[in-house]
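Look over this entry.
=====
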Amino acid sequence: MFRQTTSKFRLQYYLSNLLLSLSLFLSFIILNNIDHTINLRVFSEKKFAFLILLMCWFISLYSLKRLKKTLNSTANKFSTNKTIAQASFSRKFNPGFRDFLLSNVLPLTFTFSFNDSPISSCGMFCVLNIFMYFFYKNSSDFLPNLSLMLFGNFSIVPADFKGKEIYVFVNTTEISDIIGAKSAVMFIEGTQDKTKQVALVVTENGKIK
């Protein structure tokens, strides 16, 4: 998953992807306990587990904001010394979203019985996501980022650059103008010249298109 980018970028990308799963999980917990009286003075395993998940939610939200800032700042640092290239875009965009939603997001969100075993459910949710991070980090498999599309207004479009497939971050509102066409791209900081893989669509002024 984006092995040619920096470790910081990959971590931000993965943590931001958890925002949707955590939002669904927390919403499910709240709806299941909405009729219960909450005594804030009394400590319970359920409250502790909920606070851990809520903290994870804020970390994921922060990661999404940092990822958006990284994408925007990369384009804003445009100069004539930056590598601007032409890439040919396929007609596919945001690949694998449906399969990822059905096979990862929904099972991780609704498999665990939070009311019966709050600590175990919270722990397993976190452990499984840690394992998934190391899997995607050391795998060529592409990780769709639903949170980035829904809350960050960025989509990912596969493109061809010198006979090699690359992934390009595109403003979601501009997808119709990009797919099946050629456009200027600028590679994310941290990619190496010989192994470029992740890029942004930019205009002549270096702004994200």
